[in-house]
Amino acid sequence: MLSYRHSYHAGNHADVIKHLVEVAILLYLKKKDKPFCYHDSHAGAGLYSLNSEQALKTGEFGSGIGRLMQHQPQSAALAAYLELIRELNPNGQLQFYPGSPAIAKMLLRRDDSIQATELHPSDFPLLQAQFLNRRHCRIEQMDAYAGFRAMLPPLSKRGLVLIDPPYELKTEYQDLVKGLQQAYQRFPQAVYAIWYPVIERASIEAVIQAIVDTGIRNQLRIEYSPKADSEGFGMTGSGMLVINPPYTLATEMTEALQELSPLLADGTAQWQVTQLVGE
Q: Where, by residue number, is the active site (predicted)?
């Protein structure tokens, strides 16, 4: 099943949280001179026009990045994230939004490597075209978990693996846990950032508990919901489960979410930064 296309949802509140975490992790990894690898399991098209038919049909970016373009950030993580978005939109008009691989392309250094997999027949060529001239880059039309087996571990032995399934099918929750375990066995040194939607609270709590039960150490949960849980009414929030997080990440995200909370919510938002499993 390949119906999901992120172009309908680019720049929404879930993207803001996901990419805020991604930027913070990549900047931390860049503090060391040694090259690292960025691996994106469900990469999408890479870059999105917010003037496209798909983006305008839902208008989700209006309640996400659209609320932040004129904001003057106080927290360092939010400032770094917004700097990238404004770099893509230099005239101040919100026209483009970067997906996770595009953010990595903007931030990574010459000797850092990028790996990405995407199965959708329409999105893959759009993604591939953005990386044709980049060194140390491998973009494949491949199942995400086959990509783990084919590409991990990278030569650098350090990096970020971002796992961002569409969750179209109920089986994707089980596939995620199994795929994560396989990737971790191959590349235990990596930082893993796993995005999840809050649609049915019981379902997401079950998959998070399943990841905790794997026995993998050092798990940090970062979640933001601009709306109260309300099953049957779509996505009310989202989060990132980060394995081997930078030691600075919990503090950075606490500061960022305190600042973001009133900006993205029409009422009272719920958020948490919680260490689920210790080091």
A: 164
**Catalytic annotation present for 164:** yes
Residue 52 lies in a domain: yes
Q: How many domains does the chain have?
A: 1
User: In which domain, by residue range, is 75 found?
Assistant: 6-277
Q: Residue 4: which pLDDT band, with cuts at 50, 70 and 90?
A: low
Within a domain: 1: no
> Which sign, positive or negative, has the C-alpha torsion 244, 236, 267, 64?
positive
Q: Say if residue 2's pLDDT is above 70.
A: no
Residue 77 lies in a domain: yes
pLDDT the model gives residue 3: 53
The answer to whether position 184 is within a domain reads yes
How far is Cα 47 from Cα 97, in angstroms, rounded to an integer?
6
124 pLDDT more than 80: yes
Question: Residues forming the annotated binding site?
Answer: 19, 42, 100, 118, 143-144, 164
Q: Residue 257 and residue 263: Cα distance in Å, rounded?
A: 10
Strands (E) located in the chain: 37-40, 47-49, 96-98, 113-117, 137-140, 159-163, 191-198, 219-225, 237-243, 270-277
Cα distance between residue 123 and residue 129, in whole Å: 10
Q: What does the pLDDT look like over 217-274, one tens digit per residue?
A: 999 999 999 988 887 678 999 999 999 999 999 999 999 999 999 999 988 889 999 9
SS3 32: coil
- Whichever domain contains 130, its CATH number is 3.40.50.150
Which position among 123, 164, 213, 266 bears the catalytic label? 164
Return the closest-CA partner of residue 85 out of 25, 152, 16. Answer: 16
Highest mean pLDDT among 47-56, 156-165, 169-178: 156-165
Residue 66 pLDDT: 95
